[in-house]
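Appendix B, Record 12. Input sequence as logged:
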Amino acid sequence: MPYPSKALTIQADRVGIIFPAHIWGLPRRVIQFINHMKVNAGTYLFALAVNAGQPAATLLQLKILMSKRAMPLSLGRSVAMPSNYIPWGGPGPIKVQQRLYKEARKEIKTIAGSIRRGEHNKVDRGPLWQNILFSAIYKMTFRQVRKMDRKFWADEKCDDCAICARVCPAANIRMVDEKPAWLHRCEQCLACLQWCPQEAIQYGKNTIRYPRYHHPEIILDDMLEQAKVKRG
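Logged structural output:
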């Protein structure tokens, strides 16, 4: 999903927005996409928010944003997956990951059926306490996300391969003196850290002891190709 700079008109009967929840809310990229998107009246609009088990009010936030642009969200569903946020411990044991994959496949199959039937349901959301607390954290941190890359650093295993720079969808990394330098337009996707072949990129003090996370069906070439698209 590239950052649009002008109106993006989509000619389709059904439009889906599939994205990861970022700090219990919408990523900046999704907000900008919605603010530039135009669809025909009557278009069936659905959304799927991938999260680590705490969707909070992410889909409600999306529904409100879309309604302001006269784009009613017909279906908003949440799918739990292993956590990508390694600074807080990462994805958990392999058995837990495998269970989440299995449950997600089943849930996605159910959601696909709902979309085919054109169902209109309330959007998924967390419990009230989660919506209030986590939404407040999201609002407090949203403007700080771009500069949160200050905690990234590369240890002695870095071999100047520049995979981190190539895989970053925000073009937020450049190589300086054979080491990555972050440019303060971060989206906290952590692709640079997760896909470093040497596991040389760290975030703060704790990630050096945590295993990296890759979805088993995704390879580096997929990530590199998507990064090219997202920078467009």
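Residues 8-142 form one domain.
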